[in-house]
Amino acid sequence: MCRMGDVLAGNHAVWEFDRTTNSLIIRFARGIRTPRLWHALGERRIPVEALTGVGLTVGRRDTLVLHARVRAGADPLMEAAAGQLREVCDPYRLVLPGGGAGAVRAAAFTEALRERLGPAGPAERFLVRVPEPPATLKAYDARLSFDGGAVTFRWSRTGATSAKWKAGDQRYPLAALAGLVWHSPERPGGHLRLLPREGVGDPRPDHDLASVVFGVGCGAVHESLPFAAAVLAALRVRSPVAAVPPQRSWERIQHLAELHSAGLLTDAEYRALRDRFTAGA
User: Fold this and answer.
1) How many Å apart are CA 63 and CA 266, to the nearest integer?
2) Distance between CA atoms of 211 and 227, rounded to whole angstroms?
3) What is the mean pLDDT of residues 10-25?
């Protein structure tokens, strides 16, 4: 049973602190102004051990902003996003009306969470359930599907480059993959790149057979990010990065450096993947 102050209703979302299961339940409202990513997420249960911090600050127009910080490696959605989400789309951010009893309730809620936070270090496994991905994902140059064991690219005749079309559709079993990189479609050069264990692909996403590129109406955040998170979660369960054969580590790190130099990986993406591969060396 929830106590007084265990539920906070904010802009487009309601947060509930479930003391019985020691978890934070976030229910996203559906509406015209609600971020489409939140529509896709619907409801999420976040074990408090997956959080490493929570803050309450003053926002614009006399509002309060409650923001929870997730441990590295705890949430596949945030791992795949790698810091690329716009502030307004951050699922761990709740905007509340300020002043009066609402401020007191928000402060009590924040303190209750702080008392039960997990350790500051990275999580050894994903603690948050992966969001339900779309059955298929339409990119600019391909249609993707994930059956839980393999990712399949079916190239578009009108969108794929001749190199991809001539090579034919591609299927990548999870056992053949070391990871993936999601580059937000809201940034220039948005794409999803799978990282095969063997071989180095073309640094250009539109020529790399393990990559698909996004475009207007193709690969939107609310579709492509849950898809990437589902694949990442399945990869982590099947083959943790630390279990990748060490003799391949230098080649993978070199490949990441090439992608970073070409501007295809952000600084945050490069550091995160480099650290994972180094940990497996």
Assistant:
1) 32
2) 14
3) 94
